[in-house]
Amino acid sequence: MLLYFLVIGIVVSGIFLYYSHYIAPRLNPAYKAEQYLKNGRMYDAIIEFKKALDRKPDDFVMHYKLANIYLAENEIDQAVSHLEKILFLNKYNYEVEKIEVQKRLAHAYDLREEYEKALQVYFDILNYMPLDSDALYYVAFTALGQEEFEIAQRYFEKLVKMMPDSFEVAFATGMCSYQNQRINDAVTYFKSASTLRPGSDIANIAYAFALQRKSDFRQAIIALQKIGDSDRDQEVVLISRRLQGILMLQSRKYDEAVKVFQELLEFVKKNEMTDAVLMTLYDIGFACIKAEKTTLAYQYWNELYELDKSYKKVQHLVTLLRKEMETDYKYSLETSEFSVEEYIKQWIEDAFPKDFLWNLCGLRSNKQVNIKGLMTTARISKGTAEKSDIGVDQFINYDNILQFIKLNVENFRMISNRVVSKLGYKVDQILTTYRENDGVDFLVISPEKEKVLVWVRRWEKTKVGEIPLRNFAQAINDMKVSRGIFITAADLTSTAESSLENLSKVKVVRPDELAALLEGLL
Fold first, then answer.
1. The predicted structure's pLDDT at residue 441
2. Pair 454, 441: CB distance under 8 Å
3. What's the average pLDDT block by block, 10 residues per block, for the chain (522 residues)?
4. Residues 260, 227: contact at Cβ < 8 Å?
5. Are 105 and 83 in contact (CB under 8 A)?
6. Alpha carbons 95 and 87: distance in angstroms, whole number
7. C-alpha–C-alpha distance, residues 385 and 424, integer Å
8. CATH number for the domain whose boundaries are 156-361
9. Backbone angles phi, psi at 488, to 5 degrees
10. Taking a C-beta distance cutoff of 8 angstroms, is the pair 425, 445 a contact?
11. Cβ-based neighbour number of residue 214 at 10 Å
12. What backbone phi and psi angles, to 5 degrees, belong to 226?
């Protein structure tokens, strides 16, 4: 009898195990969905995953798998819905990592042309992963595209160290530095870009322009010589050869400059580049003047005059040069109140407008993104300005910074006190400051009743370096307070930015945030 029940038990257990380990999983919608995925049956998989979610609406893994399928099938709205749900649930595991969810969501927002939402997600990532290359890349290029060059510089300086072999990053960092008048940096980054991609016309042209700004005309000419005339875009040849001719003049190689312009004139005529012909005739006249070939200059300008009498100042130049040629040219330079020579410097300055390289490089974006407002909100959410009422759509007024810097000591302290109040803190004590003209120090009470050290600095002609931040960190420890807030009217150096990663008790309110906080206080 006992044997009978034992056999029955074994059979029942076997049936149960068979059902639970073999049949039941195959009836599970999640299992069926996975099988459909393996066979490439995406829409069948979607149906089964949805059934699984009907049973467990908060299953973040199912939401993640559905989102990935929708992204693969280019059903962006559906993907966004599931990714946003995961972030709302705030549940993750080894299979579903928060940062991957955020990156997929940012990518989906970008595909939907919701650029500010995408940017906000990347700012959120940078709050806890400040060296994430994907986030840095998106923020840096977005800022550059919006012509926010100073903002872009901060991110590119980190990114270029992380991606030293990226041509795009090296070139964009160079372009950013060039626009910020950081010419030595621009030369370094453009040189790196041209090394990474020697055949890049734009990199070599940009490198030459940066070297010209640095007055290193010889190296600029060498950079342009990498661009040959054969199999090149006509505009590239025009720009490079025209710049080369001007560089020859700046190098006092006048005869060589004339030769370059003559070859360029032959090229543009051969390719029937009408506007370029007029421009080159105008240029070559000045080159001939510098080479003391006045007769030749007159011939070229006269040819230009016959083609277009209204071209720039050619009519005046032809008349003036003819008068000078009727007398001794060198004597006319000494005795005449006005001469053709007077126009050469202005011609060189106007040959390429200051924004020429920026307009040429193709990095300007047609997107409209309020990046300054988003940056302020991102930092406030991080805790730097916890109680501020500054909204995402508020534009920053940098005139506030200039007014703030110029306040007398008494008013400066008063406005600084109000800034601290806007941040949500109550001033408990005004401390002795090493140099009262530089700023003011406060001991404040946080909303959590913690003591916090605040330094407000209005440095104008220097950036905040690593040493002041480390001194501030030491002061926090000496005062035995929980943390500190460093409010600055000046930007941080790249070294200072890097040091912040190791100064956990230090929070920095940067100039853009300060400008926003000053709204309504001045």
1. 93
2. yes
3. 59 49 51 70 76 83 87 91 91 89 94 92 87 92 93 92 93 95 94 92 94 94 79 82 94 93 92 92 91 89 89 85 69 56 86 91 86 65 41 50 88 91 88 78 88 90 84 89 91 84 88 84 80
4. no
5. yes
6. 15
7. 8
8. 1.25.40.10
9. -130, 140
10. yes
11. 14
12. -70, -20
Pairing mode, strands 439-445 and 451-457: antiparallel
- The residue to which tokens 């400008």 are assigned: 515
CB 505 within 8 A of CB 473: yes
Q: What pLDDT was estimated at residue 228?
A: 66
Q: Is the dihedral of CA 138, 143, 145, 149 positive or negative?
A: negative
Question: Do the Cβ atoms of 456 and 436 come closer than 8 Å?
Answer: no
- Short-list 316, 260, 258, CA closest to 290: 258
Cα 101 from Cα 310, distance rounded (Å): 62
Domain boundaries, the chain: 25-112, 156-361, 396-517
- What is the pLDDT at residue 1? 57
Architecture of the structural domain at 25-112: Alpha Horseshoe (1.25)
Give the residue among 199, 189, 148, 153 at the shortest CA–CA distance from 168: 189
Q: Tell me, what's the pLDDT at 4? A: 56
Residue 475 near residue 498, CB atoms below 8 Å? no
Say what the pLDDT of residue 385 is.
38
Q: Considering Cα of 339, then 344, then 349, then 351, what sign does the dihedral take?
A: positive
Spatial distance between the Cα atoms of 311 and 515, rounded to a whole number of angstroms: 47
Alpha-carbon dihedral 424, 425, 426, 431, rounded to 10 degrees: -150
> Helix count (H) and strand count (E) of the chain?
28, 5
CA–CA separation, 258 and 204 (whole Å): 22
Whether 396-517 and 25-112 are alike in CATH topology: the answer is: no
Distance CA 171, CA 141 (A): 11
Helix axes 42-55, 60-72, angle to 10 degrees: 160
Q: Look at the chain and count its residues.
A: 522
Q: At 174, which amino acid appears?
A: G
Domain 396-517: give its CATH code.
3.40.1340.10
Give every CB contact of residue 240 below 8 A, 6+ residues apart in sequence. Answer: 201, 204, 205, 208, 224, 227
* Residue 423 in tokens: 């941040």
Helix (H, G, I), strand (E, B) or coil at 376: helix
- Contact between 256 and 268 under an 8 Å Cβ cutoff? The reply is no
Predicted local distance difference test score (pLDDT) of residue 433: 75
End-to-end CA distance of the chain: 97
